[in-house]
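New here. Invent one.

***
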Amino acid sequence: MSVRVEISVESAAGARIAAGAGATRIELCAGLADGGLTPSAALIETAAAIIDTHVLIRPRPGGFRYTAEEIALMVRDIRLARGYGAAGVVVGALNAAGELAPACRELVAAADGLPVTLHRAIDVSADSIRTLDTAISWGFARVLTSGRHATAVAGAELIHAMVDRAAGRVDVMACGGVRPDNAPRVVAATGVADLHAAPRTPVGTSGPGEVSFSGVGVPAGHDRLETDAAAVAALCALFR
């Protein structure tokens, strides 16, 4: 079975790494340490010229219950992302009951025909199978899930059930700790044809003194995390 590989990146360098390794597409974000946030317009435009780019639309860290003002911002960001060359967008919103919020229909409509991925809001929804059904009926092209677990390996049983339920009506993409050493096992256990990974490695050196602007979770002595070129190459090579 052919497997499509999506790499989550937050820089132009990451986009080039993914393209060079033969990834199918990227999910473009800012702030991966915060779970991913909407990237800048300039970054969208730059990445879109390099590789098929699907843009995460998430206006803030935290959960997925958004105010009307936040939804309006997301709609505008979707339209801007389209204008800057995005090939798709990645969104999600839940209501107070943990169901897919009706505002998601507005987000899908704003994409104006671009494929829309439902992100891991599905993993914290009240019922992932019911949310999958709703996503299909509302026109999502893809759902991103770790099967309500921290890793795709741990959530494989539910991911497989979602693949069966989708029956080809929407792509189910597995994520959560996907790496070259476990990717074949994830595919075999879930039946997915899409994998999502965000392998990163620490780069650069932190400056002297007590004040530091290193990213959250970056090992001591390093400046930031960047897409791991070796891991991306090895992952893509498995399914080339």
